[in-house]
Amino acid sequence: MMARVLHHGWESRSTRTLVLLYEMGLPFDLVVHSFRRSLYNDDYRRLSPAGRVPALEDGDRVLFETGAITEYLVTCYPECGLGRPLPDPEHWEWVQWLHFAETIGQHLATLVQHHIVMRQEWMRSPTVMRYETLRLQRVLGVLEQALEDGRDYLLTSGFSAIDTNIGYSVYGAAHFVRLDAFLHLDAYLQRLMARPAFQKALPPAGAERLFEREFYACPDG
Ligand SMILES: N[C@@H](CCC(=O)N[C@@H](CS)C(=O)NCC(=O)O)C(=O)O
Fold first, then answer.
1. Are residues 191 and 111 in the same domain?
2. How far apart are CA 16 and CA 73, in angstroms?
3. Which residue of 28, 42, 49, 112 has the fewest CB atoms within a 10 Å radius of its CB?
4. Separation of alpha carbons 19 and 27, rounded Å
C-alpha cells in the first residue's frame, strides 16, 4: 500500500488536514513536530520549503498548504463526498470558504505570535494585538451571518471538507475572541468539536500544545 504521512504540530493549522484525514477514513502515519525547534532545517525543507506544517506525503507526491492539500484529497478520493466538484452548484461557495479559512488564519497567526510565540512582554505590541483582535471579530461576523439561517454546516447540503478548514480557524479564534456574541458560530464550533474526527485530532494528554491557555485576553485600550 502507498505510504501516506502527515507532518503535524498539535493545535496548528495542520489540524485541518488531520481532521480531514480522519473524516475521510484514510489510513496514514502521523509525524508530530515540535514548535520549540524550528522546522526550517534542510531535512524538513525538502518536504515543506518554508518549514511549515502541514506537509502531506502521499506516495511520491509531497504537498504543503492546507487549502491545496484539502483540494488534493477531495479530488483524489471523491467517494468520501467531502468536495463539491463542478458542476455542483455549491462548488464556488465551497472554494470561497476554503480560502476564507486562511483570511481568518492570518489574524490568528498574528495573535499567536504576539500572545504565545513572543514570550517577553517587550516584544509584543498591544496596538497590533487590539487591532488584530478587532479584525478577527469582523471575519468571525461573516461566518455568524452565513450560519444565521440555522444551517448546521457552511453549505446547505451539509458537512464538507471546508468545515474542517474553517472549523480549525474558529477553534483557534475562540482562544482570542469570546464567542458569546456569535451564537450561531459558537453552536457550529460545538457541533464540529463533537464529531469523532475532531476529538481524535486534539492533542493527547501530556502533548506539547500550541494553546497552553484556554483564553488569551486582549490588552485593554
Ligand atoms: N498557509 C499555510 C500556513 C502554514 C503555517 O504557517 N503553519 C504554521 C503553524 S499554524 C507553522 O508551521 N509555523 C512554523 C513556523 O512559522 O516556523 C497553510 O495553511 O498550510
1. yes
2. 12
3. 42
4. 12
Gyration radius (Cα) of the chain, Å: 17
Domain end position, chosen among 53, 80, 107: 80
Atom of ligand 1 nearest to the CA of 64: 20
Q: Which domain holds residue 185?
A: 91-195
Q: What is the pLDDT of residues 72-94, one digit of tens each?
A: 999 999 999 999 999 999 999 99
The domain that holds 132 is classified in CATH as 1.20.1050.10
Write the pLDDT tens digit of every residue in 142-152: 999 999 999 99
Strands 29-32 and 4-8: parallel
pLDDT digits (tens, 9 = 90+) for 160-195: 999 999 999 999 999 999 999 999 999 999 999 999
CA–CA separation, 4 vs 61, rounded Å?
Answer: 9
Instruction: Classify residue 221: in a domain, yes or no.
Output: no
Q: Could you tell me the pTM of the whole model?
A: 0.97
Q: How far apart are CA 22 and CA 169, in angstroms?
A: 18
Mind giving me the DSSP string for 170-197? HHHHTTTS-GGG-HHHHHHHHHHHTSHH
User: Of the residues 12, 52, 64, 69, which should be mutated to test ligand 1's pocket, given the most ligand atoms within 8 Å of the CB?
Assistant: 52
Q: Does the beta carbon of 103 sit less than 6 angstroms from any atom of ligand 1?
A: no
Distance of CA 67 to the CA centre of its chain: 10
Q: What was the pLDDT predicted at 70?
A: 98
At 77 the three-state DSSP class reads coil
Does 57 sit in the ligand 1 pocket, CB within 6 Å? no
